[in-house]
Specification:
6-stranded parallel β-sheet; Rossmann fold; 6 helices; 8 strands; alpha/beta
């Protein structure tokens, strides 16, 4: 019987979605699988970028983000604290054009990667957040899922998975925040959150 790959979703407000996806990537590499990690809404500014490119030639990492993050006006902007300086706040339905362009490049690249059949595991990190911010559409995400080959594992991460995505996935894990020091004003720390 041929190997069957599944669609994984790591979502929820708790910490650990990207970390879980990277852990799965490392496990896959240990089994001599080829892995592509496409990160949406992230620039190469996170600590994992210092090591991931060096651990295996079977792991490819590409980012489609900017060195700032975006926030919908009226959502969580009041909770940003010092991080507000690094944010672009936008009105509902009007995300920043430069972000739309870079994320669209990521979707095109994801489609190429999935269609190529070169990878056993493809991770679309934070694509669910891009969907939440209307930077990608459900139709685009569904198309990526539908174009997955039979033997490919496809992992989508990010908070706020919509019901349609949850229904379409084979595995859904929700990281639930029970307690987080961020609520006490602790900013993201190098090597732990960034």
């Amino acid at each position: 019987m041929a190997y069957r790959g599944y669609v994984h979703v790591y979502t929820g407000n708790g910490k650990g979605k990207t970390t879980a996806a990277i852990g799965l990537a490392i496990r896959a590499l240990g089994a001599e699988k080829k892995v592509m990690l496409l990160q949406f809404m992230k620039a190469k500014a996170y600590s994992e970028h210092n090591i991931l490119s060096t651990i295996s030639e079977d792991l490819t990492v590409e980012t489609f983000g900017k060195p700032f993050f975006i926030v919908k006006k009226g959502s969580t902007e009041d909770k940003l604290g010092k991080e507000k300086e690094k944010a672009v706040i936008f009105s509902l339905g009007k995300p920043p054009l430069e972000y739309l362009k870079v994320v669209n490049k990521g979707v095109v690249r994801a489609k190429e990667v999935i269609a190529s059949g070169k990878y056993d595991v493809v991770i679309l990190d934070e694509i669910i957040v891009a969907l939440h911010f209307n930077l990608v559409t459900w139709e685009q995400v569904k198309d990526l899922i539908d174009s997955k080959g039979e033997g490919m594992e496809l992992v989508l991460t990010g908070r706020g998975a919509i019901p349609e995505l949850i229904e379409r996935a084979d595995l859904v894990t929700e990281m639930r925040e029970v307690k987080h020091y961020f609520r006490q004003g602790v900013e993201a720390r190098k090597g732990i959150e960034k």
